[in-house]
Automatic annotation (TrEMBL):
<keyword id="KW-0418">Kinase</keyword>
<keyword id="KW-0808">Transferase</keyword>
<dbReference type="InterPro" id="IPR001789">
    <property type="entry name" value="Sig_transdc_resp-reg_receiver"/>
</dbReference>
<dbReference type="InterPro" id="IPR003661">
    <property type="entry name" value="HisK_dim/P_dom"/>
</dbReference>
<feature type="domain" description="Response regulatory">
    <location>
        <begin position="415"/>
        <end position="531"/>
    </location>
</feature>
<feature type="modified residue" description="4-aspartylphosphate">
    <location>
        <position position="59"/>
    </location>
</feature>
<dbReference type="InterPro" id="IPR005467">
    <property type="entry name" value="His_kinase_dom"/>
</dbReference>
<keyword id="KW-0597">Phosphoprotein</keyword>
<feature type="domain" description="Response regulatory">
    <location>
        <begin position="10"/>
        <end position="127"/>
    </location>
</feature>
<dbReference type="GO" id="GO:0000155">
    <property type="term" value="F:phosphorelay sensor kinase activity"/>
</dbReference>
<feature type="domain" description="Histidine kinase">
    <location>
        <begin position="177"/>
        <end position="394"/>
    </location>
</feature>
<dbReference type="Pfam" id="PF00072">
    <property type="entry name" value="Response_reg"/>
</dbReference>
<feature type="modified residue" description="4-aspartylphosphate">
    <location>
        <position position="464"/>
    </location>
</feature>
<dbReference type="InterPro" id="IPR011006">
    <property type="entry name" value="CheY-like_superfamily"/>
</dbReference>
<dbReference type="InterPro" id="IPR036890">
    <property type="entry name" value="HATPase_C_sf"/>
</dbReference>
<dbReference type="Pfam" id="PF00512">
    <property type="entry name" value="HisKA"/>
</dbReference>
<dbReference type="InterPro" id="IPR036097">
    <property type="entry name" value="HisK_dim/P_sf"/>
</dbReference>
Amino acid sequence: MKPAFTIPVPILIVDDLPENLIALEAVLRRDGLEFIKASSGTEALEILLKTEVALALLDVQMPEMDGFELAEMMRGSERTRRIPIIFLTAGVTDRSRRFRGYEAGAVDFLEKPLEADILRSKVAVFSELYVQRRQIAVQRDNLKTFAEENLRLLKDSRDNAQALKEADVRKDEFLATLAHELRNPLAPIRNGLQILRMSPEGPRAEAVRGMMDRQLTHLVRLIDDLLDVSRVSRGRIDLRKERMRLQDAVQAAIETSKPLIDANTHSFTLDMPDTALWVEGDLTRLAQVISNLLNNAAKYTSEGGDIRMNVKPHDGQVDIEVIDNGLGIEADMLPRVFDLFAQADRHLDRSQGGLGIGLALVSKLVEMHGGTSRAFSDGSGTGSTFTVSLPLVDEAGGAIGKPLQKASKTAHPLNVLIVDDNVDSAQTSLWMLDLIGHKATVAHEGAKALEIARDLLPDVILLDIGMPGMDGYEVCRALRQMPETQHKVLIAQTGWGQESDRQKAFAAGFDHHITKPVSLDLLTQLLADIAEPKASPTHTAQAGEPTHG
């Protein structure tokens, strides 16, 4: 028994006598063959308009439209002209009739009564050819799809290669910019140290110290921006949203950016409604957004330029516009101005400084607040307008949190143990604590710190994390196990400032977590709060970062 065909093979049988249709189907029946029967030429044409067939078996002598006419109609249509046709006839088959049949497109001409084996053999041949054609068509389509997919992959590969090439160029430019920006504040800091070493109390000492403080603040800001953009890109920043007055964020931003605006002798005007504008936001992060826009305007505007900020509520949202008459932005740069490291492309001499991440932070933080960021400029030398839009919310009660205020020398001195393997860091921390009225003792390793803590019983232990041997987490856990120190206030003072680092510190038993370099104002306020008799310690984070309880 011959195997069935791998795909269904449709066979069209056309005969005006129903008994002939039944007989032909019975003779040819085989697995894989599907028989479609028509009793007239017209019915056959209707079937062929809808159905593809492998072979047509046509009776010659039919009323209205005979087999020859049907064959000619089939040859006249692009859809059916290639269908093999076998004529079946019970009439006289002279040469003229055969010639007409082959002229109409027949591949064979069989006389009735039919020899079943011959008919089955011929049907099998054309059925196999049909299956092969279909398989070739499928392979052709697969090859076409494969070729198209290869072309797409090749294009994607080329695009990715180009993107990697551009990213590599951007990385090199960024690293060069980063080195430049880090050296800028480090150079005057080092010069200031040399000056103070030669003349610690000279007439320039106070000015030098102020300069060093400003440069160190700038250096910390650069590092914080790098950390922030990394956290935002990985979705690791948690906003502490609350209903707040937008005016509070605007004022905080202006206080932060005013020194840079004044240093460049810019004029600054603010147009903002007195009526409270309520938004759902993180005060610190929104202040950072607005400050970044103001700093950007100050850096890219020549000395003596004009900077304006307009705060305009409308249609359930508020627009914050920062407008300058500075260097402007080229048209090809506008779509990329909020991209990471875009500054490297903006000014070839990089004379204005910056890492090109401030505006990227603006865009991402605004997006996290449900808002949008836009930039506009008519081109080089025409100034720029940056607009941030935020959704407004209904007014709500409750006070908005206020930033830490600078604290004065404490009236309640504390006994503090400083634990840090970095000798310079420990010594400068001791001097800072002495200046604000606290007594401090230093230990440079974990085991020694446990001995001193047991004997000294300090009020507060300021503990570095990344120490060799016994790290800060281990020391913290050991202190919590000692009866003498288990209830003491433990502060993690570390260069590790990610959210996971803070959580790990609190899990180890720390009460507070502050990142290096530590702000004197923050440390002063924190120790003042601890010294208050009624204050109860709660987890504290570096200023500008979330607090975790």
